[in-house]
Design goal:
Order of helices and strands of chain B: EEEHEEHEHHHEHEHEEEEEEEEEEHEE
Helix content of chain B: 25-40%
Structural class of chain B: alpha+beta
Largest sheet of chain B: 6 strands, mixed
CATH topology of the largest domain in chain B: Rossmann fold
Distance between the termini of chain B: 36 Å
Strand content of chain B: 35-45%
CATH superfamily of chain A: MetI-like
Number of helices of chain B: 8
Number of strands of chain A: 0
CATH class of the largest domain in chain B: Alpha Beta
Helix content of chain A: over 70%
Order of helices and strands of chain A: HHHHHHHHHH
Oligomer: heterodimer
Number of domains of chain B: 2
Shape of chain A: globular
Radius of gyration of chain B: 22 Å
Structural class of chain A: mainly alpha
Number of domains of chain A: 1
Chain lengths: ~220, ~325
């Protein structure tokens, strides 16, 4: 892409791509995990849920540092050569989004009316169908959790900066570009990027609202 | 063959015993009413008979076969369905809800839809098939839930307070539909109710529960009291009223005033009866040649009198009557 317009479009698309991939992977892992935590009863479950809720408040710079140390040339995963690539940002954002997707899915399952399980059972549903029925009843709350995870990933800056390096045309995202523009005194540009970010977040939020339809969440 | 055979059944929640039933046999095609006040253990018993909950101890046999393992319970759930007091309808249409049990049994989508429509038609709910299940009135929810439970043609259906919240006409329609279903095929019905008049009207057998155990008396005119003690003739506070009771006991107890021991009159009686209460007639239910009259005297009292006496005295709902009973007629346990 050429010209400032092209560069901005590239930055916006990269931000969207990173956020979508990270959210999808985090949710593919986190929603089933959250279902398991919300559905089953086992020793240590409460401790796990408490840890998970703590992870929700994990500072993004700590995540950035952790992933940086893992991916640094001398780190355990240094051989992969991922540091300062957009894939490294995806990894960091997955770590950020996973506890959100898991904790909110677990909460969504726990909030399902206990009559759902009993009703499915008494109507002859087996374990799998009962679990699926409970998940379906919780789907709008789970989807809300997915939206929260996506919003958090899209607006994240600390980890993206640390593991992506804000490399022009390669790892520069909307948030890291805003940080740079602000530090260079290009406030108008920073505000314009901020508006694009808001527009993206709004679009995704509206899509999720439409998906939820008449769901009472 | 009996549909249910229960032996030494015990249930406890968090270590607290909530049900103790030494024996219960429900024959095929029976209409058993489980009656008792709130907390009597009615729902607990129904959930155990529905094999949704596992008992703390004891056994339940379904059609002669003891159901003990998880797999057996799963199999039993394919033959017994329960309708909760406040039934839950899944998101989706009424038809999808009614077809749910059939789909769970591997019936194809098309065949399940046909049978679900038939079940709805039998409950006179055909027109609701395409409606959003979340947009129904309470009474409709109740009837759809019954249609859903019957659609799978179970050997027994368990109904927890099937008419609470519904109006009397809906009430009548529901039991009439259940009777039609029973006429069509073998079906055992167990329903829980706190209204004894429903039990007398619709059931052919009755199990009265009180504090998780079979009660020696029917749950009408049962009152939790605190006996003051001091003498054999005690003045006991029951709600806003004071009743005279003969007992040596003190402390918490349950008073039972048998409905057949209550004399109704249109004027206050001067007799040996120590307790005379004035009240308004709020409900009347016919029970063969007898009539169960519910009087609101500050507490609700049910009196059982003959149809002839009822007619001769000109009693009617909304009218005033006096209830008299001897203090020795009040049972304390």
């Amino acid at each position: 892409m050429s010209g400032p317009g092209g560069e901005v479009a590239g930055i916006a698309l990269l931000s969207l791509r990173i956020a979508l991939i990270a959210t999808v992977i985090a949710c593919l892992l986190g929603v089933p995990l959250g279902f398991f935590l919300g559905w089953t009863r086992f020793a240590g479950r409460r401790v796990l849920l408490a840890l998970l809720n703590t992870a929700l408040a994990l500072p993004t710079v700590v995540i950035g540092l952790l992933i940086y140390l893992l991916l640094a040339r001398r780190g355990p995963l240094g051989a992969l050569g991922l540091l300062y690539t957009w894939q490294a940002i995806v990894v960091a954002e997955i770590v950020l989004a996973l506890p959100i997707a898991t904790a909110l899915s677990a909460a969504a399952i726990q909030a399902v009316d206990p009559r759902v399980r009993r009703t499915a059972l008494t109507l002859g549903a087996g374990t799998l169908r009962t679990a699926w029925t409970v998940a379906l009843e919780a789907r709008f709350a789970i989807l809300a959790g997915v939206a929260v995870a996506f919003g958090r990933v899209l607006s994240e800056v600390g980890a993206a900066l640390m593991v992506g390096g804000n490399v022009r045309f390669q790892t520069r995202t909307l948030t890291t570009a805003i940080t740079l523009a602000t530090s260079q005194g290009q406030f108008g540009f920073a505000v314009a990027l901020g508006l694009i970010l808001l527009a993206l977040a709004l679009t995704v939020s509206v899509i999720i609202q439409l998906l939820q339809g008449h769901g009472d969440v | 063959m009996a549909t249910f055979d229960v032996a030494a059944l015990r249930q406890a929640y968090g270590g607290r015993p909530v049900l103790a039933l030494d024996a219960l046999t429900v024959r095929e095609g029976a209409r058993l009413a489980v009656v008792g006040p709130n907390g009597a253990g009615k729902s607990t018993l129904l959930r155990l008979l529905a094999f949704v909950d596992t008992p703390a101890a004891g056994t339940i046999a379904l059609e002669g076969k003891r159901i003990a393992s998880g797999a057996a319970r799963r199999g039993a759930r394919l033959r017994v369905t329960m309708v909760e007091q406040r039934p839950y309808l899944f998101r989706g249409s009424v038809l999808e809800n009614v077809a749910y049990g059939l789909r769970a049994r591997g019936v194809s989508r098309a065949a399940a839809a046909v049978r679900a429509r038939e079940a709805l038609a039998r409950l006179r709910l055909k027109e609701l098939a395409g409606r959003d299940a979340r947009a129904l009135s309470d009474g409709e929810v109740q009837r759809v839930a019954v249609a859903r439970a019957l659609a799978v043609e179970p050997v027994a259906v368990l109904l927890d307070e099937p008419v609470s919240g519904a109006d009397r006409a809906a009430h009548h329609a529901l039991f009439a539909a259940l009777a039609e279903e029973q006429a069509r095929r073998p079906l055992t019905i167990v329903f829980a109710s706190h209204l004894l008049e429903d039990a007398y009207r619709w059931a052919d057998d009755l199990l009265a529960l009180h504090l998780g155990q079979p009660s020696p008396v029917t749950p009408e005119n049962l009152f939790r009291v605190d006996l003051p003690g001091g003498s054999a003739m005690q003045e006991v506070q029951v709600g806003p009223l004071t009743l005279e009771v003969v007992t040596d006991r003190t402390g918490p107890a349950t008073l039972a005033i048998p409905p057949e021991e209550i004399v109704l009159s249109t004027a206050s009686l001067h007799s040996s009866a120590r307790n005379v209460l004035r009240g308004r007639i709020v409900r009347v239910a016919e029970h063969g040649a007898a009539v169960r009259v519910t009087l609101d005297a500050g507490i609700e009292l049910v009196a059982l009198i003959t149809r002839k006496s009822f007619d001769e005295m000109g009693l009617a709902i909304g009218g005033t009557a006096f209830a008299s009973f001897k203090s020795v007629a009040v049972r304390v346990f």
